[in-house]
């Protein structure tokens, strides 16, 4: 096994819906795409063929660990190119999959951490729904009995509503994140970085590289040795940065390619290997 662990967010970091692709070139010059997710018999998520080749090769050079806020069911709909990842982080760190199966020891660890200093999910979920206006609330959900989220008409959200909700949640040990049309409420101990640290401990990886676009990815980026964020998303919109995090100018699918190239370059530097990425 290689000594580098590459932990990356998926949606709007490596894979993209059609709406998030941000293809700015003429149609005749658009890149060929590979569909990696089908939902309700319709293609949903894509990456460029170049990105697919980069990801396939990366998995042979480093330990690639998807780190997503998706539930296990949502994650298992994705079929990334290359060998199936041995480890995957789902539910924002709530589940650690090992060869596709949730690790029971990690589930117990997470449950203990959440019981120590967070308001219960039912309380937060109830407040989240009550604070929403039916005029712009489309759906409300809980995920894996760990966190809650709303699907909203973002353009109709009142000024200050997110800030007010954030303050309420913060006092109860929860954080709030707005990603596209989804408003997430997540317990503060529930982090991608904690699950990735557990993978690092088990595998003995000596270096961690990461990438992500949302505020829920901030802890993952901060915990890495080197990290990248695209030119879109919450982190870019708020100007979030850190000394070891590279803010890329690319947006959409082009950012996904650039992130994978950056991973390749960093892995080759660490291995002292030669070669040219795809």
UniProtKB/TrEMBL annotation:
It comes from Streptomyces ramulosus. InterPro entries: HAD-like_sf (IPR036412), HAD_sf (IPR023214), TPP-like (IPR024197). GO terms for molecular function: hydrolase activity. The lineage of its organism: Bacteria, Bacillati, Actinomycetota, Actinomycetes, Kitasatosporales. The keyword Flavoprotein does not apply. Keywords: Hydrolase. It comes from the Bacteria. Signal peptide: none annotated. This is HAD family hydrolase.
């Amino acid at each position: 096994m290689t000594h580098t662990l590459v932990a990356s967010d998926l949606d709007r970091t490596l894979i993209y819906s059609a709406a998030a692709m941000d293809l700015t070139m003429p149609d005749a010059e658009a890149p060929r795409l590979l569909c990696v997710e089908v939902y309700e018999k319709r293609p949903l998520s894509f990456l460029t063929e170049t990105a697919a080749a980069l990801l396939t090769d990366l998995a042979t050079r480093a330990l690639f660990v998807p780190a997503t806020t998706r539930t296990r069911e949502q994650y298992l709909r994705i079929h990334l190119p290359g060998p199936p990842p041995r480890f995957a982080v789902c539910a924002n760190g709530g589940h650690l999959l090992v060869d596709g199966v949730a690790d029971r020891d990690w589930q117990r660890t997470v449950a203990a951490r959440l019981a120590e200093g967070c308001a219960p999910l039912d309380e937060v979920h109830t407040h989240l729904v009550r604070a929403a206006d039916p005029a712009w609330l489309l759906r409300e959900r809980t995920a894996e009995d760990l966190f809650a989220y709303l699907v909203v008409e973002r353009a109709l959200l009142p000024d200050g509503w997110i800030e007010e909700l954030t303050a309420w949640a913060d006092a109860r040990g929860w954080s709030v994140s707005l990603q596209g049309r989804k408003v997430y409420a997540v317990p503060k101990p529930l982090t991608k970085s904690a699950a990735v640290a557990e993978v690092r401990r088990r595998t003995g990886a000596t270096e961690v590289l990461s990438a992500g676009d949302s505020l829920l990815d901030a802890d993952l980026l901060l915990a890495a040795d080197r990290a990248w964020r695209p030119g879109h998303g919450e982190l870019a919109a708020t100007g979030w940065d850190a000394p070891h995090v590279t803010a890329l100018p690319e947006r959409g699918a082009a950012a996904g390619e650039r992130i994978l190239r950056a991973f390749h370059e960093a892995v080759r530097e660490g291995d002292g290997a030669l070669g040219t990425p795809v």
